Every structure is written in C-alpha cells, then in structure tokens.
Amino acid sequence: MKEKTLGLILAGGQARRMGGGDKALIRVGGATILARVLDRFAPQCARVIINANGDPARFATTGLPIIPDNVAGFAGPLAGILAGLDWAAQHTPELEWLASVPGDCPFLPRDLVPRLHAARVEQDKPMACARSGDWRHPVAALWPVALRDDLRRALVDEDLRKIEVWTGRHGIAIAAWADTPVDPFFNVNTPEDAAKAEAIAAQQGA
To answer: How does 143-160 read in b/e, with b if 16+ C-beta sit within 10 Å?
Structure first.
C-alpha cells in the first residue's frame, strides 16, 4: 500500500512540558527526532509532508512541504490530520490514504504503515491506529482521504477535539506492537524523556 499512502508528520504541538520550542528538533543519538522519524517513516510512504504551525523555515532543511492547520485556534491533532487530508486531496489525488505519526517518537516501527493497512483489511474497518502494550496511539494512524469532509464538519460545526470520539463513529482497527524492551511509540514530552531516549539510542548503537 506504499504507493497509495501519503505520510504526515505531526510537528505542530506547543511543547509546553519542554518549556516551548519544537520537540521534533531535539537531538537524540546524534540526530534530531525529526530526522529519526523520517528515516523510519519515509520509506513506508509514497510522499511525506509535515504539519506545523508558525514559521515553516525551521523545518526547511527537510525539503518537505510544511503545512499549517487550516482550522483556527489550535484545534489539536485532528486539525493537523484534516490539513493533511486536504493537502492530499489537492496535491496527490492519486493517494487514497494518509498515515500520520507524531513528530516526537524517535523509535517508530519500520513496518508501521503496512501493518496499519493489514489491520484495517483484516478487521474490516475504514481506519487503523497503533497500540503498544495497553496503550493506544490515536495519532499513529491510517486515515482515508475520503472522510475529510466528515472530519471538517466535526471540527468546525461540532467543535469536536477528541480523536477517539470521531474515529469511534466510523470504526477503527488496531495494530498491536510489544512495548518491550523498548516501546516503539515512546515519545519525548519532558527533559527526562529526552534523557531516556538518549540512553535508549546509545543502547541501540545509534
């Protein structure tokens, strides 16, 4: 399904627990988290774009399209998903699927996208998201571009912000990963998380 999937990295968070700034630009194992995400995620997708608000120049070195939210007022991850779906419909109409990942997960699975596709087919659901251990990761997920108008209505007309409320209306498959010895969806939210990620990267020889 690589040829039908646009990759979206969500890098629009405000990083309050890190004291501001971009979590994706924190360095882990000698590279930024964003570089590590791209290394793992980009080969699984036909193209990749980044969702980020503010000055896009801070991600210019990636050479990728940087798209802001197109719903006002920091509406959360669903706004980033919608921006990605709208971009896909306009720029890559041949791609039927959007796979999203958070921009603060330095150890993402290298088989994320194919396993999400397999889960939605096997479980006969229109969407799929990842789970590691007992935790779901609603933004490590697969979205059909065909549902973008429904998502816009939910965001704009209903002021809906909770991902799992919206996905629950349509049905979502679950693709499961082990969370040991390293949770592949470990995300860096605090300085302590960054130190832990650095230690994991060192153990992995990164």
So the answer is: bebebbeebbebbeeeeb
